[in-house]
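Two proteins were folded this term; both appear here.
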Amino acid sequence: MPVFDKIYETVKKIPKGYVSTYGDIAFAVGNPRLARVVGYALHANPDPQTIKCHRVVNRFGKVSDAFVFGGKNRQIELLREEGVAVSDEGYVDLKKYRWQFLE
């Protein structure tokens, strides 16, 4: 399976109300060094209705300044609609909202 497809399938597993980091996704697909590739894949997301890329944040819990589907404020809005608390600066508390893949 191509790496972008693996990334998309992994992102689909993040439940509503949770987030994961680019590094979490990279680790889950089998290569912890692919965090940037995860970013590229999500930027090219072919189906944001199904592949909920707004649930992916950086290693500090910060939303993307370049969220491709409506910008940073849209990502914050989507997360808040799912019950994720996001600070006005765009940070999520990873201790509370981080989804980790245990497979």
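Next, the second protein.
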Amino acid sequence: MTFNKLTLTAMLYDNPSARDFASMHPLDLKIEDYGRNEKIVYLPRKLTEEGSGPFGDERPGDLCYFKPWGNLALFYADYRWDGLIRLGLFEDGFDPLLVRGEYPVRIEHI
């Protein structure tokens, strides 16, 4: 993911939702602040929810899908929400997520 001349690299997990997300790449969308612990990106369509289930080890750096709204949730602080599917984890930290604001974002495979 690239926005505001910053780059984030995430390793996607091997689950149906993450594979569905990967099949959509490349994407040119918008990333924006939401609350005080995450940035969000609205996807062009909802992802499959097949194989989703609760998890209890939430942590900053998680890349998730929020089922009710159909958006990505990129967490940079502690969180605990129902309705999430974990898609992956940011590999080199998540400092770019701390930059406040709304930006065009490019999401692609590397």
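The mean pLDDT is 93. The longest strand covers residues 27-34. These notes refer to the second protein only.
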